[in-house]
Batch of 2 targets.
Target 1
Amino acid sequence: MIRITVGMGSCGIASGAKPIYRALEKITKNKKNIQVVKVGCIGICKYEPIVEIFEKERRTTYINVKKSDIEKIIKQHIKKGNIVEELLISKKILNILDEPFIKQQNRIVLKNCGEVNPEDINDYQKREGYEALKKILKEDRKEILETIKKSKLRGRGGAGFYTGLKWESAFYQDSDIKYVCCNADEGDPGAFMDRAVLEGNPHSVIEAMIIAGYVIGSKEGYIYVRAEYPLAIERLKIAIKQAKEKDLLGKTILNSNFSFDIKLRFGAGAFVCGEETALIESIEGKRGEPRKKPPFPTIKGLYNKTTLINNVETYANIPSIILNGSEWFNSIGTEKSSGTKVFALAGNINKTGLVEVPIGTTLKEIIYNIGGGISNNKNFKAAQTGGPSGGCIPNSLIDVKMDYEDLKEIGTMMGSGGLIIMDEDTCMPDIAKFFLGFTVDESCGKCTPCRVGTKQAYEILNKITKGQAKEEDLKELEELSIYIKENSFCGLGQSATNPILSTLKYFRNEYIDHIQNEKCTAIKCKNLVKFVIDKESCIGCGVCYNNCPVNAIKKIDNKKYEIDQNKCIKCGICFSKCKFNSIKKI
Amino acid sequence: MRKVVKTKILKIIEKNKYSLISILQEIQKEYKYLSFDNMYFLSEELKISLEEVYGVITFYNEFNLNPVGKYEIKICLGTVCYVKGASEIVEEIHKLLKIKNKECTKDGKFSLDTSRCLGCCSLAPVIKINEDVYPHVKRQDLKEILEKYK
C-alpha cells in the first residue's frame, strides 16, 4: 500500500494544495494499492505545498510541489520507484524528518500533525487515538487526577498555572452542573500552534476534553474558537460528528454510564476573549469583558457553575500523558515544568514555522540549531516572546532557558508561544509602539488604566519615534507603564506595557538617542531618517527620479541626482527601486 | 418588516438556543449586516433591551451595522498609496458609484471601505475588490475595472 499525503492546512491551501490534491485523487481513483490523504500542517510554511509518499520502508517528502509536477511524481516515483530529486528539500534530505528544523524537535503535541488525516477518525484511532479514553473509563477518577498532577503539565496559553491543580479544584467542587471549556481563541499576532493542532489533529483535543469531563464529573463541553479560523471550525465539526458516530462522544460513551457532549462557539473578533473570564462572558453571548477574579472559573464560571478552562495545546498533551504516564512526561522538560512547548518562530530568522522543544531549551538553541540563525547574515538583537503581552530578550541573555520562571525573571513571559526574532535593523521603541498600538485597538474598555493609559503610553511612544519627545516624557512613560501594570483589571491590561518596560530595561539607550539626539540608530523611524544619494556609486540611471511620487529628486550636473530634503516625504520608494544601492539612509 | 424575514429570524433564534452572539453571527451571514429593524425585532423576541444588543454588536469587530455589497471594494490608504494618489481614487469611486466610505450602492452590488495598509506598497496605489487585487490603479482605469463586476 502506498500512502500519498498532501499538506492541507490553511497555509498549504493558500499555497495551492487543493488542485494538487484533486489531481492526485483523480489519477489514483481506481488504484486500490494507492491511498491519497489530506493532512494538516507540519509546521514549515515555506515548503508548502508538501506532498509526501509513504511506502513500505521509505518516506519521501516533496516540497513546493506544483500541479505540473504531479505527472512526474506519478510516472517516475509511483510507477518506477525512482525519487524525483529536484523536488526534494535537498539531495541529502529524503524526507522531512531529516530536515534539521524538524529533526531537533521533540514532538508530543504536534506528533500527528501533518501525518494523520484530520477528517478521518479511523486514521487517528490507528495511531493510539482514543486509547487514552478507553483506558481511563476503567480507572478511578482520583487516580487519573493524580497522574495529571504528577505530570507537572502547566497551562500552555500563557500564565502557566498547573493543569492538575485546576482539575483538582474543579473535581472537588460540589456543583450540580460542571462545564469543560477549551480556549481556542488564539489571538496573539504571530502565534498559530493552536490552529495547527485544530486543523491537523482535532481529535486529540476532543479526546482530552472528554477525559477532563470524566475526571471532574462534567457532561458538557464548549470549544470557543475564533471565527477567523474557518478551516479549524470545519474540521472540528467533522471530528465531533465522527466521534459521536463511534460512540466516543454523546450518551453512555463506550457503554459506560458516562455521557459527554461538546458544542462549538465562535469568537467574533475580540482579542480580550482569550482571557478566560472574558471568554466565559462571550460564550454566554455577552460583551467579552473580563470578570473579577476570584472567584475563579473552577468555582464560578460559565452560567456561574464550576468551569474548567484549558487551552488547545494543554489539552493536546493529555492523551499522551495518560498513555505513557507522568514519569515519562517528567523526563522531558525542567524540574518545575514538564513536557514541551510549541513556539511559532518568526521574524528575521532563516527558518520560520512551528517548533516544539522540551521546556528549558535555550533561546540560543532554538535560534541557531533549529531556526538556522539570523537571516541575511545579520546579527541577533532581541527576541520577543509572549506577543503583545510579553517582553524582549536581548543578546546578552540569549542563553536563557525557555521556561515559565526563567522568562518571568528577565521581564518577559512564556505566553502562548509567539517567538519573534529581531535583527540589528530593528528599532526597539518602534517595536514597543507597534505592540502598544495593538493593545490600544484591542482594549475592551472596562477599566480606565488599560483603556486610557495604553492610549496615552502610545502617544508618548509616538512622540519618541518622531523625535519630538523630551526627557520628562520618558520618565512619564515609565511611571505610566508601571501604573497600568499594577492597576489594570485583567491580565491583558496588566501585561500590556511589558513591551515598553522590557525594552526600557534593556535598550534604554535607544530611547535616549531618539530623545536627545533625535537619532534612530536602526534607521527605522521615518521622521528621523534622511534619504541621500551617494554620488560615487550613482550611475545616473534616473529610476529614483522617475519613481519619486512628490518630485523631490532633482537632476544636477553629470547626470547625477539629488534629493530635496524639504520636499522628501520619506516614503522609501527610491531606496527600494535603486539597483546600485546608491540611496543611503542616514 | 417582511413576514419572511421575521420567520427566518425566529428560526435562527430557535436554532441557536437564544445565544445572542451565535444568533447575530447567523443573521449577519444571512443578510450580510445587522439592520436596525432586524435588531429591534430581535431585542423584542429575546426580551432584552436594544441597548444590550447594540452593546454586543459594537464590542466585536466582526459585526457590520451597514450593508455590504456583493463586491466589497477596499482602497488602500497606506502612506505610499496615499502619496501616489489614493485619495483621488476614493473621490472617483464616490463619483462613479455615488457612495461614500462604509456605504453600499442601492442595488447592493458595491460597498466601499478603506484600509490602513494592504501590504503591497510596491504596487501602489492598490485597490482590492473581493479577492482580486488591482495594482497601479489610475483614476481613468476605474470605470473599466468596475464595469467587469456590473
Target 2
Amino acid sequence: MIINTDSTKPIYVQIAEWLENEIIAECFMADEKVYSQYQLAELFNINPATAAKGLTILVEEMTLYKKRGLGMFVAPEAKMMILEKRRNETLTKMVTDIVLEAKRLSVTKEELIQLIHKCEEEI
Amino acid sequence: MNVVNCQKVSKGFQRTNALEDITFQLTDQKITGLIGRNGAGKSTLLKILAGLTKHKSGEVSVFSENPYNNLMVSANSILVDDQMTFPDSLTLEEILGSAPDFYKRWDAQLASRLFQYFMLDFKQQHSKLSKGSKATFNMIFGLSTRCELTMFDEPTNGMDEAARTDFYRALLKDYIAHPRSILISSHHLTEIEHLLEDILLIHQGKVVLHQSLDEVKEYVVAIQGPIIDVERWTEGQEIFHSKNVDGQRLYVVVKNNSKLERARLEGAVIQTLPASEVCMYMTSETKGGIDDVFK
Amino acid sequence: MFLSNSSLMSVVLSQVRFKLNAYSGLVYSLIILQLIGLLFSTGWSSSGTSINNISINLNTSSIDSGFIFVSLLAISVGNLITTRAYRYDDFSFVATRLSSNIANSIVLLVFSCYVGITTYFSVYLMRIFFTFYSNNVFVEGPTILDDPMNSLLTVLAMIIFLWMFSSIGYIAGTLFQLHKLLFFGVIVIIVMLMMTGTWIRISETIFVENSSLLILTSKIIGITLLIFATSTAISNCLGVRT
C-alpha cells in the first residue's frame, strides 16, 4: 500500500486502517507482534512519530496491546473487534446520512421512525 | 532539554527586519519542517542558529548556549545550504577525508557508500560541480556528520526528481537508525510532508504557527456551497481565502472551529486540505489569491 | 542526546592540519613566485681593479633585496587568507572565529618558516647557478658552517620578520573585510602618523636600539601577536555566508 499524502485522511489514520486490514486478513495473528513504529516508518516512507500515532489509535481501541520493551502485539479478540467496529461505522454513517437528508426534506423524527418500521415489515 | 530556544529574536538588514519577534522551541530529536515563502526569513534564521551571523535582539540558545562563536555548538551542529564552500585545492575525496578530524561521529562508510550511489567523482573539485551534484555532495556531507542538530536550507535545489526522492529516503533511514534533531527548510512542503513531525511556519519574518503536521492539516477547512449559506456559516470567523466559484457558489477557507458543526449538519461540504495548501493560504497576502490580478 | 565536546586546542590543531592541506595550491604558487622573485631581484655591486693589464672584477650580491621581495609576498599571503572564500571554508567544518584566527596565525608562521629557510639557503642556489651559467672564475661566499650560531639567528630573525609582515597583511585584510571605508581611513591615519616625529622615535626604539638579535626578535614576536589579537577582535563582527 502506498500512503496517500494528499488525501484528506491523515497519514496516521491510514496507517491504523492498514494495520486493521492486515489483522482481518490474519497476516498478524492474535498475540503476534506487529511492526514497530520504526519498521512502519521505513515501510511507508513516513516519519516514525506519525507511525507511532497510528499504533496509538489501535492501542486506545484495544486492538493492540503494548508489552514494555518488546513492542506492540495483537489483542486476542482483535479481529472480531475490528469487524464489529467496521460494521457499526458503516451503519452509523448510513443512519447519519438518512437523518441529514430527512432534515433537509423537513421530515420529522416520528415520520422517519414510521418509514423505518414500514421498511422492515416489507423486507 | 530544548535543543533550540528562541525568545523574541529579531534580525535586521538596513531598513527592513528579516526576522521579528521570533519565539519557538525545538525539543527532543524531531524532524521539523521550516516552511515559508521566498524571503520569509528561513535562511536568516538558520544562519543564526548555526552561529554564522549574529542576531540583533532577543535570545537564541542552541544546546542551552549562544551559538555565535561557540565551539560546542559548532561541533554538534551543521548547516547545509548552497553557499557551503570547500577549498578549491581539495578533491571531494580529500574533503570527506578531512571531516573525521572535526566531527567525532562522522560515518565514513555512509559517506563513501552514498558517494558511490550517486556516482560522484572522487577526484573532482567542489567548485567545479554542477548545481545538482553540489547539492548532492553537500547533503552527503551533512548526513554523514551525524550532528545532533542537522539543518538543511532548501537542500534539494538543483537536484533532479530521482535524486530528491533518494535524498529524502536516505535522510529518513539515517534518522531512524541514528536519531537527531533535523530542521529542514523548504518552500516545497508537498515533497517533504511525509518526513515531518512538526511544522514551523514563517511569514515575513514572523512565526505563524509551530505545530505537528496533523494539527496543521486540521487548522483550517474549506467550505463550499451557495454564497448566502457559506457567508452565514462563516460569519465572524477567521477567513483565509474566499473565491466566488461560478457566480452562485462560494469557496471559503476558514479556521477550523466548533461553529462549523452547524454548517456540517446543514449539509455543507467541508473538507480538510493538504498541509501545503494550509500553509499557502495562511501566508497569502490577499484573500482572493492570484485571481485578483486578473479581475 | 550525545554532545561531543571539543577543546579549543584540538579544534585549532585540526584546523591547522586542514589548512596546511587545503592551502597547498597557495603553497605551490608561493614557491614559484619566490623562485622567480629571488632570481630577478638580486642586485649586483661591482668593483674592479686592474693590475699589470689583468683586470679583476668583483661582483657581490646578497639576498637582501630577495628578502624584501619575499616580505611583500608575506604581506599579500597574509591578506589573501582573510578573503571571503578562505574564511567561509572554515565554517563548513567546526570553527569559531577565535579558532580560525589562531589557526591562521600558526599557518602563517609555518609558511614564514618555510619561506625564511628557503630564502636563506637561496644563496646556495645562486652559487650553483653562477658556477655553471656565468663566466665568473670564482664563486665564493659565506657558508653556514662559518658561524652556525649567527646563521641560525639570522634565519630565525628572517622567519619572525616574515611572520610580522604576514600579520600586517592579515590585519589589513580583516579590516578591509569589515568595512572598506574604515580600512582606507586607517591607512590615511597611519600615513599621517608616520610623518610625525613620534612615529620615528618609536620605530627607532623598537627596531634600532637593540642590544642583541634576541631582544629584537622578542619585540617583533610581541608586535606580531598583538596584531593577530587585534585581527581576532575585529573578525568577531564578520558574518559568514551572508
